[in-house]
Inverse folding.
């Protein structure tokens, strides 16, 4: 019996490949996803017990963001409603036309509050999902529909008001009735039943469990590599379409190359730093970089550059935060960081500088 996670529904909106025949399933490692899971667990624990994570933990600052969103922003009144924290994943089955075996939809909604409807049997629920990632343009509507549908099936709510809160406090909201969600699920089941077996590779493949066993993605990767193979190939880079197509293919090729190089490096490390085929060998060569020890060099640099020393000193903010936490007392770590950063901001010592720009491709938004 196949099981689909709500988080995979945005992938299914583009390609139904992960519902195909048996394949080698790989869950790509993602530090961002792991951090998001940890933040969600910390917020759920706080809601149930009032206990916050250790203020020296890596997730504490993100936890504070969403705690503030749920207590100090426009979402606070909704949070104060009767709240529910789902301890485990909830599941419900849906059937595909002309198929005897159902598919299980599984999901773990973050937080829901039951809206008070005096003297009414019509139940409305607020579903709040917090997104700790930095991709503010990612589309979550299908995942949220999945969570909402599960709530109507598991708790028999009549209507769901769904909202995602991003780490920058922007939000996106939808409203669905039970009937609308059932119709959406029926359409998804029909789409699955009519799938022609075609794979449609794209950006949605990044976290697909089938990405390492997908003929469509493999064909795309081969085409991307072959695009750059002919030495006499020339491109008209004044043509926007050519630039966009080449960029997408170059990114795909780069990912393939980085994945292969990473796997080879891991193999060399696992073999003790050296592998050989008898004629050639590959070894892990340590590299050494010259660095300045601030503790010993500070007085000398200050003496040599009395007027311009600040121009050569770069202080990583993460290193400063770590040092401030280390000297703070128990329970005072984040407060100490916040206090010092406020002092720096007032003095003009904390500012935003433009970082390296990056290229990205997105759909053109229609006017209005």
């Amino acid at each position: 019996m196949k099981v689909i996670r709500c988080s995979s529904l945005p992938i299914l909106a583009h390609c139904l490949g992960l519902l195909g025949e048996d394949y080698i399933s790989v869950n790509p490692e993602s530090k961002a996803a792991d951090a998001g899971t940890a933040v969600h667990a910390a917020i759920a624990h706080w809601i149930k017990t009032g206990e916050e994570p250790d203020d020296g933990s890596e997730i504490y600052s993100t936890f504070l963001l969403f705690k503030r969103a749920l207590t100090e922003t426009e979402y606070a009144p909704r949070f104060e409603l009767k709240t529910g924290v789902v301890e485990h994943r909830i599941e419900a089955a849906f059937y595909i036309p002309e198929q005897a075996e159902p598919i299980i939809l599984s999901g773990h909604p973050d937080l829901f509050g039951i809206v008070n409807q005096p003297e009414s049997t019509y139940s409305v629920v607020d579903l709040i999902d917090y997104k700790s990632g930095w991709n503010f343009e990612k589309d979550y509507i299908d995942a949220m529909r999945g969570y909402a549908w599960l709530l109507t099936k598991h708790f028999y709510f009549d209507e769901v008001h769904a909202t995602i809160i991003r780490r920058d406090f922007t939000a996106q909201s939808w409203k669905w009735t039970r009937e609308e969600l059932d119709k959406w699920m029926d359409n998804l089941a029909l789409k699955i039943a009519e799938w022609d077996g075609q794979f449609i590779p794209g950006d949605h493949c990044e976290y697909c469990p089938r990405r390492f066993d997908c003929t469509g993605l493999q064909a795309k990767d081969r085409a991307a590599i072959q695009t750059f193979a002919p030495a006499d190939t020339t491109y008209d880079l004044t043509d926007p379409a050519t630039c966009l197509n080449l960029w997408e293919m170059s990114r795909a090729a780069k990912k393939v190359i980085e994945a292969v190089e990473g796997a080879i490096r891991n193999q060399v490390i696992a073999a003790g730093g050296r592998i050989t085929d008898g004629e050639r060998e590959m070894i892990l060569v340590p590299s050494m970089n010259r660095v300045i020890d601030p503790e010993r060099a500070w007085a000398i640099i200050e003496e040599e550059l009395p007027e311009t020393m600040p121009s050569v000193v770069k202080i990583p903010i993460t290193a400063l935060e770590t040092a401030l936490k280390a000297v703070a007392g128990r329970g005072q770590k984040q407060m100490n960081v916040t206090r010092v950063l406020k002092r720096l901001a007032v003095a003009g010592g904390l500012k935003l500088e433009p970082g390296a720009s990056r290229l990205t491709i997105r759909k053109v938004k229609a006017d209005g």
